[in-house]
UniProtKB/TrEMBL annotation:
Record's keyword terms, sorted: Amino-acid biosynthesis, Methionine biosynthesis, NADP, Oxidoreductase, Sodium, Threonine biosynthesis
UniProt binding sites for NADP(+): 9-16
Membrane-spanning segments: none
Protein name as catalogued: Homoserine dehydrogenase
Domain ACT span(s) in chain numbering: 351-431
Catalytic activity of the protein: L-homoserine + NAD(+) = L-aspartate 4-semialdehyde + NADH + H(+); L-homoserine + NADP(+) = L-aspartate 4-semialdehyde + NADPH + H(+)
Active site, UniProt feature: 203
Length: 432
């Protein structure tokens, strides 16, 4: 039986689990692949650092460059831009296929890496980069390649879903829920990437590129994280039958006859009856709409060492099979060229919360501003707060679809009204 040399870069949450599977399941993997997968080394920063795993210490090396030079397959699980990018290019230059979970790097500079891999005739596989264990990239790229995808909407960040879900279900504090997510190995090395939506934005760019056969990178994604979502927003949403989720959305919009793709990440109100509303904890789900298939949903563990290692190993086995059987490996170059739509042109529904003085004419004045900007109101809820002799009211409007530009102008005009104490929240709404 042929032997394929496998080099592993990084031995953290995911890398240590990949190493465990390669060593413990070697026989199964060989019979599925038709080749022995020999783990030749694991590049680490400090071979003597204390670790939770009992991996053989003789596999550890600090010479990552040399390690990749002798490999058939390089698994990159260091994360970050450098030295991951240089090492991947080095591996490709030496004829190795690369498997990675590094969505940040792919969303920043995937085009260069794909081009180099295609030119070298090697594979660059990255199922782990989006929604962890969930098989989502291969279904979009292969299973749906005979259909036309119109929209992809996903909960693709486990950390933020864990936080929002804990705040919604137990009233947990933001900071406590984030600390739990870090302890459980879901969060990025710098959890700002999770909380501010950057991790979901990288995944959104990757999903959009595959769904719309065009290269989208991070610069094409508008991004808002969950740091400004308050316990009051979550309670008000719950009261009105909604849940707040951080969604990555990629959709084709008509844009007055000049179709474009909007890729965006933002906290989103979803009706509690929507399939994505039932995604709890660190679980992920991706909701896909295609012209012929209709609605599809892919659900599972989107983060964590072992689940992510499962996706990495799927790519390793499929790459190894191809190396055993022969045939082309590359071909990631996108075939389409749909333009990315500027955020101002995106149309969606909104929920707007206002704190107002409870007096006659307030509602009419606010409604007038909506009308003047062509934003149509779908529903309105009012809650009265009596405070001694004065009383104020909280108004929550949900609008029909309107453009970001019209919404921004509406909110500015509302802020200018004397009777408005504050605009308490502006959240986008999906699934209504
Ligand atoms: N943890 C998760 O749930 C998921 C992680 N990913 C991605 O997988 C990759 C790895 O993630 P984790 O294992 O969670 O990260 P981690 O931070 O636990 O592990 C990364 C490891 O690489 C090592 N490393 C970094 N630079 C190095 C260098 N120059 N030389 C040698 N070792 C180096 C670090 O010391 C660390 O042990 C990242 O790209 C991440 O975005 C993808 C999906 C899910
Ligand atoms: N930090 C990420 C890990 C997976 O990509 C998350 O929380 O989902
Ligand atoms: Na995946």
């Amino acid at each position: 039986m042929k032997t394929l040399k496998v080099a592993l870069l990084g031995c953290g949450n995911v890398g240590s689990q990949v190493a465990r599977i390669l060593l413990d399941d070697a026989e199964d993997l060989a019979s599925r692949t038709g080749a022995r997968l020999e783990l030749t080394g694991i590049a680490v920063r400090n071979p003597d650092a204390p670790r939770d795993t009992d991996l053989p210490r003789n596999l550890f090396t600090t010479d990552a460059e040399k390690l990749v030079e002798g490999a058939d397959i390089v698994i990159e699980l260091m994360g970050g831009m450098e030295p991951a990018r240089t090492l991947m290019l080095h591996a490709i230059g030496h004829g190795a296929s690369v498997v990675t979970g590094n969505k940040a790097l792919l969303a920043a500079d995937g085009a260069t890496l794909f081009e180099k891999a295609d030119a070298a005739g090697v594979r660059l596989a990255y199922e782990a980069a989006v929604a962890g264990a969930i098989p989502i990239l291969r279904p979009i790229r292969d299973s749906l390649s005979g259909d036309r995808i119109t929209k992809v909407m996903g909960i693709v960040n486990g950390t933020t879903n864990y936080i929002l879900d804990a705040m919604d279900s137990t009233g947990a504090q933001f900071a406590d829920a984030l600390a739990d997510a870090q302890r459980l190995g879901y969060a990025e090395a710098d959890p700002t990437a999770d909380v501010e939506g950057h991790d979901a934005a990288s995944k959104g760019a990757i999903l959009a590129s595959l769904a719309f056969h065009t290269n989208f990178d991070l610069a094409n994604v508008s991004c808002e994280g969950i740091s400004s979502v308050t316990a009051d927003d979550i309670a008000a949403a719950k009261d009105a039958g909604f849940v707040i989720k951080l969604l990555a959305i990629a959709e084709k919009l008509d844009n007055d006859g000049e179709p474009g793709v909007s890729v965006r990440v933002h906290p989103t109100l979803l009706p509690r009856t929507h399939p994505l509303a039932a995604v709890h904890g660190a679980f992920n789900a991706v909701f896909v709409e295609a012209e012929n298939a209709g609605e599809l949903m892919f659900y599972g563990q989107g983060a964590g060492g072992a689940p992510t290692a499962s996706a990495v190993m799927g790519d390793v086995v499929s790459t190894a099979r191809r190396l055993v059987l022969g045939g082309p490996l590359g071909a990631e170059t996108p075939t389409g060229s749909v333009p990315a739509l500027p955020f101002a042109k995106v149309t969606t529904s909104y929920s707007i919360g206002l704190q107002v003085t409870d007096q006659p004419g307030v509602l009419a004045a606010v409604a007038q501003v909506f009308a003047e900007h062509g934003v149509s109101i779908e529903t309105m809820r009012q809650t009265i707060h009596a405070d001694g002799t004065a009383s104020s009211a909280e108004l929550r409007f949900v609008t029909h679809r309107a453009s970001e530009a019209a919404l921004a102008a509406t909110v500015e005009a509302i802020k200018g009204l004397d009777i408005i104490n504050s605009v308490t929240s502006v959240l986008r709404v999906e699934g209504v």
